[in-house]
Amino acid sequence: AQSVTQLDSHVSVSEGTPVLLRCNYSSSYSPSLFWYVQHPNKGLQLLLKYTSAATLVKGINGFEAEFKKSETSFHLTKPSAHMSDAAEYFCVVRGGSYIPTFGRGTSLIVHP
Amino acid sequence: DAGVIQSPRHEVTEMGQEVTLRCKPISGHDYLFWYRQTMMRGLELLIYFNNNVPIDDSGMPEDRFSAKMPNASFSTLKIQPSEPRDSAVYFCASSGGGNTEAFFGQGTRLTVV
To answer: What is the pLDDT of residues B44-96, one digit of tens each?
Structure first.
């Protein structure tokens, strides 16, 4: 069995400040982990992925995430938020079942 | 490749009517997933196929929902009869084998009135 918990339903930051979106996972197998972004009324776009290579993964638009097996975490960070980062973010685990399992999502709000 | 293509983008139908959503996966991908997204329940997996064969349809909410994949380049999700509570955004996604990333279509926004 596998599951994902996104610890915050909403995160609010000011433009130019760091972003931290938290994700914990559970999987019986060595999983792959992903972060997707969904802008309003749009589809889901892959931000970055971890597939058992380097534990610090860099993605598009300045985002990165670190895989920590001991903490079963895969938190998403960005040093400086931009207004265009306002969107819904989903953490996804894919393990032995090959089914991508989604977290409930975190809404990122960026204030000017 | 043009990515995963879904049609229609928007569908408005009356309660009781049949609705068919369509999906063309990325060529060479052997997994296809149908998800439903609502505010209340988030993203739910409805059914997935591997090599055109349905593997797990436990997420299909009722017998009113059915899905087919007659070949590697086409899948349909059908709702008959439709009900207002079926209103949601339906996403199709495809992926290669193993734990590779899934690629999503733009979704079909279904409104049942």
So the answer is: 999 999 999 999 999 998 899 999 999 999 999 999 999 999 999 999 999 99
Cis peptide before A40 (omega within 30 of 0): no
Contact present, A2 and A93 (Cβ < 8 Å): yes
**Nearest by Cα to B97 from B42, B66, B51, B34:** B51
Contact B111, B15 (CB under 8 A): no
Q: Report the CATH number of the A2-111 domain.
A: 2.60.40.10
Instruction: Give the closest-approach CA distance of A33 to chain B in angstroms.
Output: 9
What does the domain layout of chain A look like in residue ranges? 2-111
Out of A49, A95, A99, name the one closest to residue B101 (CB): A49
How is A9-39 classified by DSSP, letter by letter?
SEEEEETTS-EEE-EEEEESS--EEEEEEE-
CB contact under 8 A, A94 and B99: yes
Phi, psi (degrees; rounded to nearest 5) at A74? -150, 70
Preceding amide of B25 cis, omega within 30? no
Burial track A88-102 (b if 16+ CB lie within 10 A, e otherwise): bbbbbbbbebbbbbb
Residue to test with chain B: of A74, A98, A99, A107, most B Cβ within 10 A: A98
